[in-house]
Design brief:
It is an enzyme of class 2 (transferase). The chain is built from 38 helices and 34 strands. It is an alpha/beta fold and about 900 residues long. The chain folds into five domains: about 150 residues, Dna Ligase, domain 1 (2-Layer Sandwich); about 90 residues, Acyl-CoA Binding Protein, CATH 1.20.80; about 140 residues, Glucose Oxidase, domain 1 (3-Layer(bba) Sandwich); about 300 residues, Phosphoenolpyruvate-binding domains (TIM Barrel, Alpha-Beta Barrel), CATH 3.20.20.60; about 40 residues, no CATH class. Bound molecules: adenosine-5'-diphosphate and magnesium ion (2 copies).
Amino acid sequence: MADTKYVYTFGDGKADGNTTQKELLGGKGANLAEMSRIGLPVPAGFTITTEVCTYFYDNDRTYPPELKDQVNAAIADAEKCMGKKYGDPTNPLLLSCRSGARESMPGMMDTVLNIGINEEVVQALIKQSGNEHFAWDSYRRLIQMYGDVVLGLKPENKNQDDHFEVILDAAREKEGVEHEAGLSVAAIKQIVVDFKKVIKDHAGIDFPEDPMEQLWGCIGAVFGSWGNDRAAVYRRMNGIPHSWGTATNVQAMVFGNLGDTCATGVGLTRNCSDGTPGFCGDYLINAQGEDVVAGTRTPKRVEETLQQDKPEAFEQLTNIGKTLEQHYKDVQDIEFTVEDGKVWMLQTRNAKRTGFAAVRIAVDLVNEGLIDAKTALEKRRIPADDLNQLLQPIFNPSDKEQAQKDNRLLAKGINAGPGAATGQIVFHASDAEETYNKDNDVQLILVRKETSPEDLRGMKVAKGILTAFGGASSHAALVSRQMGKTCVCGCDSLNIDYEAGTVTVAGQVLKGGDWISVDGFTGEVFAGKIETSPSEVMEVMTGNMKPEESEVYQRYAQLMAWADEHRKLNVRANTESHDAEISLQLGAEGVGLCRTEHMFFDHLDEMREMIFSTTVEDREKALAKLIKFQRDDFTHLFKVMAGKAVTIRLLDPPLHEFLSEHHMHEDPALAGKLAKTFGVTEEDVKRRVAELVESNPMLGHRGCRLGIVYPEITAMQARAILEAAVACKKEGIEVLPEIMIPLAGYKAEVDNQTAVIKATAAKVFDEMGESVEYMTGTMIEIPRAALTAGEIADTAEFFSFGTNDLTQTGLGISRDDYKGFIGYYTENDIMPADPFQTVDQTGIGRLMKIAVADGRETRPDLKIGICGEHGGDPKSVYFCHEIGLNYVSCSPRRIPIARLAAAQAAVEAG
Ligand code: ADP
Ligand code: MG
Ligand code: MG
């Protein structure tokens, strides 16, 4: 049997490997091979495979026996390509040793340069280059990197002394130079002596003079760096399996530090912040490797000065950029070195980009003929979530930078609602509303310990919301996402004193009316004002800008058109009447969830009257006052959504959300007012409030359990819906109402409510002398409903997964109470993700699959959607596509994200 191939060579227009072999060769190695294959200038070298890394950890940090011979043969190959010999005292080849995992792990693992220098070789380098400074500086760098990386002398934190840097600092100070590039040769020679002494003193060994010993030391260190803590933490955060391992790349050195004809740099084949075409990057003349990114010298911009500095190098780079894009069909992020005017390629990979850039680049590449529209939709090119950046206001980058420089960052919370908002602090929703009513242009940030349903109207008029408590699924977070509002929540360093009207944070006391800025993309909170720019896409959609005025909008629209062509899932909005228009602009193909309780919160007095009623008659009287508001709202919604399905959910929350201790506490006069209105005593009021208290409201008297005990509520709602529908039909508007029963677990519950709806419908149609087609269906949000979906589908004409409650009841986890452990759970690999953000596919997803299969067995044309928060989460959308749902429904601002995600699911499925 032939020996396993552990070493893959590249260089001179040839390579053993190629770009598809990332698993075996790591990203860096696979692409060095590929670049060599397509004839780009790559210093010769070889890649030791990730299998060796696995062997290394399985066998006590030793190597497969055949590795040594394979490495020696590969060194001989590189020597031939480069016309130099490793360790040779007259014509020495130097090597670098570089880590390279399957996915890039920036800064996590180690690289050593200039391997192969010793006292003899340094003399040969002087003779060959005629540049003593270069030779001694390269030697100096080797000893330092070897000490740091191989011998572990790099300090773990800032409190420990960095022995090498201490020596360098002293030398720089002594010679009065800013950077070591300016040191005299004598000084560097002395540093080499001192560095060797550091190694002797702190690692207890002599710096190895033997080039082969140096090389194997470095190879061991690169494989070893895969196992260091830093790398392990990074992998956990980024979902990279510990089992993958890294490859090690050994490569002939080329020199950017041979003098002013040389340079080293990094670049992008086009701008990845905004997507503008054209090469851009950073370079430093007469420098090596990490100098560019280390921040000790300020690099120059390739696109600004390289053309003048080094016209030939600029031309080579531009051409290489084009070749790379043509070949990889994507923007590349590259590392290069210029040695005596010749450009050498040291790395390439698909570049990371912002959401703005992602959209522009994908559309541009299609227009340039490099890719087709289907390829442009790939999720690795445009993570669907990143579309947010085009839909929300952002801080002007320079103004935000200034705020950072001015130390105005106050705190960091959870980035719950993307966008940027700047405004004056207001602590109470009612004050926010009042101020807004006086001046519609006022910019307000609602700052609260937490928010609750009565804050809704204040939240609506605020530019942003900032809370001290609550996590990513707190009321503030959910409602902000629903409204498309910037929100930072759970910012626990805020100390809010409602009575004093102050918030204390980072040693500063801010008052109501003071300016504050919140970044909902990052969770940052800044003191003072930071100018924002509105989203051009939203400006066009709201009619403030013409489509032809915004290139950003045009590209967005183009991308969305491609997405719509490819997707199979329909996308609907979770919306009430007030943002129905914008939902349409954002691409809603109907309403998947109209929550009716918002209408009740707007009419608390009538709602409370109903709560205080003790007889059916009194309740009906109170409800009769509410019906007009409901009917008007539905009429508006039907008109906006003409010809599209509108799913309306019957009342869902428990009654104490409309009247509780909390309300009495917030408004001490409330009990008195209510007592007077209803002609009872304050004691009676308090007794009624006490009756409504539940110790676990999520599992209490809510959902269809309300409509079953108080059928007049369901009847009123069904009447409002159907009267509105008939009225619209009479005006010639096509209406497709779908009436949805919440929180059912038993077929009998669905039967009961459906009967109430049907009886009401018969009455309404008779009274109005006209009827409409409508559907009745149910939410699937209780595990029992999923498990008995076959029976339920006998009555229900459609299903809609309420995955918030389904997750809550299926996992037995209250999303209001999981803050204490969810962080620990995800950090320690107990749960792969927050199940309230991404559908738990193995558990909750299984319930969904059962419901889909059994439901459709009973009723083959059963329409099935999802209306939980998950409907706008790309991973969950992929899952909904897979299990064959008809549509996803999400908050308006997430509609474009869901459309793109649905297209990505379809494209990926082939
Ligand atoms: P990282 O993964 O941290 O970017 P690399 O292995 O890419 O580490 O090395 C960092 C830098 O070191 C490269 O960008 C390049 O400038 C320099 N470098 C690595 N190998 C060589 C080489 N053979 N010749 C010249 N410079 C090199
Ligand atoms: Mg690199
Ligand atoms: Mg629910």
